[in-house]
Amino acid sequence: MGTTVYERRMPSASVIGHSLAETRFAVFWTHDLPAELRPDRAPLRSAVRTDLVIVGAGYTGLWTALLAKLRDPERRVVIVEAQRVGWAASGRNGGFCEASITHGHENGVARWPKEIDTLERLGRQNLDEIEATVAGLDLDVQFERTGQLAPAVEPHQLAWLDEWRREAAGDPDVVYLDEASVRAAVNSPTYLAGIWETRECALVHPARLAAELARVCEERGVEIFERSHVRALTTDAASGGVTVETDCGRVEADHAVLATNVFPSLLRRNRLMTVPVYDYVLMTEPLTAEQWDAIGWAGRQGIGDMANQFHYYRPTQDGRILFGGYDAIYHYGRRVDPRYENRPDVWAKLASHFFTTFPQLEGLRFSHQWAGAIDTSTQFTAFFGTARRGRVAYAAGFTGLGVGSTRFAGNVMLDLLDGADTERTHLEMVRKRPLPFPPEPAAAIGINLTRRSLDRADHNEGRRNLLLKTLDALGLGFDS
Question: Are the CB atoms for 283 and 367 separated by under 8 Å?
Fold first, then answer.
């Protein structure tokens, strides 16, 4: 087995130790959120009647509520949230708002080859509409459509870039950068070449996006109840209505949307459809002008390398660098548990990889470290459906690319609840459910064997072993 660039160019233990010595275990985005954008909303303490009830005040629930009001300003909409607006994945992700609704071109081609052109057009349209909404509703979310850079950091990845370049020939938004050009854009000694997709990704402030969506929802009459944990979802056979029961109150509605992301579904049919995998992130202190000069990055692109166990990183508007990814850790039992978030070993590994990527920044400290659970599906992207005779709609399984695609999901669910015949509802991606994950202990054995196989592939010039090839053939390939 070979070594990766992160093993060949490891920084010293003292550099890593210094960088993490004063790091705060907290989500930077939440701490950076102004108090006026984080009002303390009351829990539900009575019975409420509405047209549409939404469970979950993350991006999926908030986009669905806003789109519902934009479609019909008279529609009554209520959101119930177990914690706070944007508390989970929506407030702690990397802030990459991507056009892809299929978790990348290759995943889309592998699963829906006949629809890939439509899916990619709808994904770009969705990102364009997010940009228009941000501007039209004056959402202060630090939206920057700077695109995304994919650098090759191992020699075998250069062939992947060449294939990508050939497939994208003639597309002015896909820019190939040779070694000199990519290092002129972002000066990392690990970069061998790269492709910059100039329009396929925007950067946002995750917590601001959730907070601003909540603000404009409430301005349009949406009621949001925080700290209201939903215990049950029932339907009335006579009226066909839906009731959501919380600890201290209930909401009776004509329709419901389940936007619970990684948390256990209120529908038994969906309990095996996702698993939680934990992702870890570091945020640096603000860089000095000299430090920024040393690495360049004037284009402010989001960056994601090409390994199976990949890193993603980006600049912030106050001059920091977020650096995350690589490990995606699954724990036996499908539990979402705050105890899984504190992993000093993972943060030390991320810090080592950061200074391998940017050795000229040695001496920089990390101000924040945190983690969060990603809802992973076997198709790497969201699945959709209805239940209770079409009264309940759901979407889950975004697999780390939900910042943009949650808005698309909101439109899909509203189409399904309305019984609308749209281009979205005709998609095979919308009509067909993916395979579920197996129950334990098979889930833990399979997922962790796959993670080890992906790591071995990164150490073996990208060559996939028999397990990975078999999973690919079955449509069950697993990615970090």
Answer: yes
Beta bridge partners of 281: 324, 370
- Between CA 275 and CA 109 the distance in angstroms is 23
Residue entry with tokens 């629809």: 115
Interatomic CA distance for residues 300 and 93, integer angstroms: 18
* Crossing angle between the packed helical segments 442-458 and 466-474, to the nearest 10 degrees: 120
**Contact predicate 458/6, CB 8 Å:** no
pLDDT in tens, 124-176: 999 999 999 999 999 999 999 999 999 999 999 999 999 999 999 999 999 99
Q: Sign of torsion, CA 274 102 411 215? A: positive
Q: Which residues contact 154 (CB under 8 A, 6 or more apart)?
A: 4, 5, 192, 306, 307, 458, 461, 462
- Using N-to-C axis directions, what is the helix angle for 59-71 and 402-418, rounded to 10°? 50
DSSP for 102-153 reads: SSSHHHHHHH-TTTHHHHHHHHHHHHHHHHHHHHHTT--S--B---EEEEE-
For residues 192 and 377, give the distance between their C-alpha atoms in angstroms, rounded to a whole number: 32
Round to whole Å and give the CA distance between 385 and 376: 17
Give SS3 for 157. Answer: helix
Q: What tokens does 61 get?
A: 């629930």
Spatial separation of the C-alpha atoms in residues 452 and 377, rounded to whole Å: 19
> How far, rounded to the nearest angstrom, does the alpha carbon of residue 331 sit from its chain's CA centroid?
19
Distance CA 241, CA 226 (A): 23
User: pLDDT tens for residues 185-208?
Assistant: 999 999 999 999 999 999 999 999
Global model pTM greater than 0.90: yes
Give dist(CA 291, CA 316) in Å, integer. 14
Q: Which residue has tokens 């039209």?
A: 136
Considering only CA atoms, which of 212, 213, 274 is closest in space to residue 54? 213
Distances (CA, A) of 133 to 36, 126, 437: 21, 10, 36
